[in-house]
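Internal ticket - ligand job 346, zinc ion:
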Amino acid sequence: MTNSKPGTMVVSLDLELAWGRFDHHPLPILEHESLQERKHITPLLELFDRYDIPVTWAVVGHLMLEKCLRNRHGIAHPDLIPHAYYSWFPLDWYCFDPCTTVDAAPAWYAPDIVEWIRHARVRHEIGSHSFGHICYGDPECTPSAALADLNAALEAAARQGIVLKSFVFPRNQVGHLDLLKHFGLRSYRGAEPPLIRADNRLFNKTLRYLDQLLALRPRDVRAEEVLPGLWNLPGNHFFIARDGMRRMIPMASRVLKGKRGITHAVKTGGLYHLWFPPFNLNKDTEAMMSGLARIFEYAYRMREQGLLEILTMDDYARQLAREKQEGSPGMEESLLEQQTEAQLSV
Ligand SMILES: [Zn+2]
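stdout (structure tokens):
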């Protein structure tokens, strides 16, 4: 079955450095890993340049700061009220914030990375991954905590001349969508639908492992306008790291899964949404980069043939809004259908 509308590939990256996991890992390890993560940014930008792939960099807002200070009571970010509070992290959310400068703590600040992204040849999108990596979808996240966090993210971006339009929820925990809409964000990356719905954690973990090992085709996901003007663009391919048990998953599985996702998007006119945090490249970096390159090379060929578009989250959301307004998908070239039949192969 073919579709006259090209498929769409979206790539979104969660840039969080030390902010993503300070509740799970000792700080020295986290800071060491963040410095490793920093080293992947330039090669990634070069890779995107090579295949002309614009991506959405979902950046933790605090990383956009040059520096910050504690107040005289020792409180970090006292203007951000209230700080998020969760029973599973019974401390001030910003207790580990070093409150210094990017030079002194490059795991906690990264305005330099934002500049690198903005100066890349390809025009990338800078989106938001919240301000302090708080969990919006957690039942304990109050509307006022989410509002304060989102406000801080928008302000940090505005000081860099950036208007945030796309959002990636920390830990993919979706919540407070009304706030996103209120502040004019147009899209977010929803969680990948599970292979099978089950409550057993170990069973789910095993399924996810097998899903990656066997390179099953990424789940069929569709963009959905969940509130007027706010689109959910679910992820459907997490480019997994090569650490722990995941070392056993050959690179070929990651690549095949990507190609299957692209092929399916081309066949159906649907979405292939690849995502990962750059620290996933910390282990076996060379092989991971070459795996990504093989996926991008395939996407590049599909785009050359007019079968695939490669868009940032916001470009895709704007395209969907336009198509909705026009009342049709709009991509009707009959030649495309013939090409699709002839060229789909992995
Ligand atoms: Zn701070």
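Auto-summary: The longest helix spans residues 27-50. The two ends are 16 Å apart (CA to CA).
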